[in-house]
Amino acid sequence: MLLKECRTAAASRTADEADRTGGDQRQHAIGDQAIIVDEDALGDALPGEEHSVRVRDTNAFDLDRVCVRVGIDGHHRGILQRAWRVGETGGKDFILAHASADLDALVTGIVRGGFEYQGQKCSAASRLYVPRSLWPRVRDGVAAAIGAIGVGDVQDFRNFMGAVIDRRAFDRITSAIAEARRTATVVAGGESDAREGYFIRPALIETAEPDHRLLRDELFGPVVSAFVYDDARWPETLALVDGTSPYALTGAVFAQDAAAVADARRALRYAAGNFYVNDK
Questions:
Q1: Residue 42 — very low, low, confident or very high, per pLDDT cuts 50/70/90?
Q2: Catalytic residue among 88, 191, 209, 236
Q3: Selected catalytic residue, list 6, 116, 122, 206
Q4: Distance CA 82, CA 237 (A)
Q5: Which of 61, 88, 135, 244 has its CA 20 to 30 A from that of 271?
Q6: pTM
Q7: Is 88 a catalytic residue?
Q8: Residue 176 contacts by C-beta under 8 Å, 6 or more apart in sequence?
């Protein structure tokens, strides 16, 4: 998310204007601020005067890459370089399970950490590393939980999940799930229905590719992608977790073995600002 102070009317569109253009909610005016929730919207929202912009980046975007992608010219790129502030790093938060992990705690951490708020929080778990010895029970436990989760109107308190934020989010997340059906395995969930709201049933995806896009790129939705590793490759898996994604907001390790926890604390000290042990 980008938070930009706006002192000129031209620098923002109002929510009413967004509604008139078909509900495009990439940017909303709130007082003298505009909230931009998508890097594609940055170019449209950028004002011409240097004093009128402050950008708070909560996704750790690569500024040069974003500028090239959305066509921001050299003058405005210079303005952004002086105004850019990294407020926090983004998501793609990990859960790493050791062979000694408590199964019930692990399954609960995956389900609640990955699917609360429809996965639309920067601390949501979205990539999972599980040893082969535990995977069948973890897979079945998460799949059973997904089947039991209520998805619908949040005024009905029987529903654990509501709709995702807007059509753009719905399209992005459902496209990623469709990609997973072609390039990986959708273990459970992933069904969607936008007739009465942007509802997506949470999805558990398994991939045999440690560098699969769904283990690297932030989706900001109810999708957890899993990689199953050989139990004996614990040290290599620590390095894999550390090096797969540029994001580093939260991460969790589940292990009853104290030596494994100590290994993870050392190897992943720069992989997560908030590091959890046997919790998420």
A1: low
A2: 88
A3: 122
A4: 38
A5: 135
A6: 0.76
A7: yes
A8: 214, 219, 221, 223
